Amino acid sequence: MKSKLAMFIVFSSWFFLTAFIVYEYMVYGSQLIEHFLHPLHAYEFLFHLLVLGIPIGSTITGYLMNERKKLLVETQQSKEKIEHALKEWRATFDAMPYGVMLIDSEFNIIRANKYIADFAGMPIKELIFNKKCYEVIHKRDRPLDDCPLIKSASTRNTETFEYYDSRHNKYFMSSITPIFDDEGNITAYSHPLIDITDIKQKEEKLIRSRDAFFNMLKDVDSAHKDLKALYQNLVIAFANVMDAKSSWTKGHSERVTEYAISIANEMGVNGRGVETLRTAGLLHDIGKIGTYDIILDKPEKLNDAEFVLVKRHPVKGEEILKPIKGFEHIFPVIRSHHEKIDGTGYPDGLKGDEIPLLARILCVADSYDSMTSDRPYRPAPGKEYAISELKRCSGTHFDPQIVEAFLRVLENKDN
Predict the structure, then answer these.
(1) For the CA atoms of the chain, what is the radius of gyration?
(2) pTM of the full predicted structure?
(3) pLDDT tens, residue by residue, 327-380
(4) Based on the domain organization, do 23 and 152 belong to the same domain?
(5) Does the N-terminal peptide bond of residue 347 adopt cis geometry, omega within 30 degrees of 0?
(6) Alpha-carbon gap, residue 412 to 263, rounded angstroms
(7) Do 214 and 227 form a contact (C-beta atoms < 8 A)?
(8) Do both 9 and 138 map to the same domain?
(9) What is the rounded CA–CA span in Å between residue 404 and residue 394?
(10) Region class of 169: left (phi > 0), else alpha (psi between -120 and 50), else beta
(11) Are residues 283 and 355 in the same domain?
């Protein structure tokens, strides 16, 4: 890209130099160079230097002017690209099906999407730096006594909570996640707001179904053997209902139970423990009934908010079954089947022998079946991969003795 003004200046200066040389030649002829270098007067020498300096300086000036113009054009193009990217980012931000806010340490809203503006009933511009998060979310003039932002600032971790909004007659799942700069200082907090009203309604339906289901069991007054058979068949049927929520998990609970019982038998677990493991294995994922089907069938990796919902299923499973007398022995197994030996599991971060033995067995069985089954976000890695992962994570995620027992079960099965 050439600047016309720069070209004119450069051309004019060199034209002036050429005209001067022609003039000098006409006057001094073959003595031109001698006169140019050794003029009679000092002022002529200075003039000659000026004549030479003008085109050189003009050329440099023209180059700089041209570069300046290119820089201005590139700057304008970069500005347009940034503005376009900002528009796309804002469109994406506003298109999210849940609310998102960025909050500073003083509870001021520094960013918000359209969902939050609609929730608050005011334009986004009125929210930014003009409203506190607790004014918008809770309609209060001060933070909650157990404000999750204050907790997050202290723990420097994500704090998750649920609450009911009577104004909108909706239940929400929310969290506070600190955002750090390169030096590890908290610069802001991410505050998503997810409508879980549908999940709550499903939970209520599930509770009604659960009550009806177990009331039916109370009315059964037949022989102990028939009652036990009916009990087992109903548990299996209930497990099938859970697995039928998604085509990807069909048969998962029964396979996990089969693997877990094989491990227990290999390790010499007593009969009562095996029966506890059978029931816990069939019902270990009951907490996922209250999870969106779209999350369970999502064809790509879950985002942080979705993973938080899924990670609640062990606790939800325990809560769903707690009112049932006679199921107390399976609660620790269901709650702790995602705990890891090194303490990095969930929901309680238990480690080693703090995790019930049956939960450790169920963890290995559940992980093996997950790694040998197709999922919406990936095909099954296969048996050999699953075995290599069990060996690799033995002692960190899995109990080494249980892994060894399961490998013997698989080897005997192959033989």
Answers:
(1) 37
(2) 0.47
(3) 888 999 999 999 999 999 999 999 999 999 999 999 999 999 888 875 655 667
(4) no
(5) yes
(6) 12
(7) no
(8) no
(9) 9
(10) left
(11) yes
